[in-house]
Amino acid sequence: MTAQNVFEHPLNERMRAFLRLSGLFARAQHFLAGASEQDSQCAILTLLELSELTGRVDIKRELMKELERQSANLTRLAETPDVDTRKLTQVLDQQKALIQRLHAQSGPIGAAIKTNEFLSAIQQRARIPGGLCEFDLPMFHHWLRQPLEDRRDVLHAWLMPFAVVQEGIELILDLVRKSAAPSAAIAEGGFYQQALDPSLPFQLIRVTLPDDATCFPEVSAGKQRFTIRFLELNLDDGRTSQSTEDIPFGLACCAL
What we know:
49% helix; globular
């Protein structure tokens, strides 16, 4: 398989939150790079999603806990033969620096966004279908018509408090993803099941399919085992059905 699609399934709530935030950061950067009013509007809405999600979870505490947990596990590898000590030291230094930056950041992440009346008005109207029309929020459309660089400067300033969160999540996810290489597996009749060793800190299941695959995986996981059903989508009625074919795929159970 050369061109590949990777589907990821988190195995705990912390990893679930990190993956959601990672997706929002990627979306924010995509729209921030755009030049249109619609790009700026989507960047604002993504920023508000980031603010809401980080408000539900003490993301600073969760990040520090995970960085400290991973650091402790990686430190134990220092005496393992064939370990690249230079690379290991570099990663440990990165983790330490991120923990220090998180400690130094006072108050909740992005707290200023929640008290900004301009953003609060947008968030309130965004919950209403079609609620961001010009006659509903003239001040928003006035801002959207400002010069591109002015809009980008404001968006960068609002996103800046999340920078350390983004860096921490990217490092954590990168290490987790690299903790296991994919191995070949086959789902007979579109179904696959495997046991998990409860003594290992599994974080993530990664399923790899060729980009021309006609099915997609639906993962259901518990503490001791997980199952994967490969489903086919009928776009005419929007319904899915389990594939009856034997599906070859790549599987990585990531534990760090």
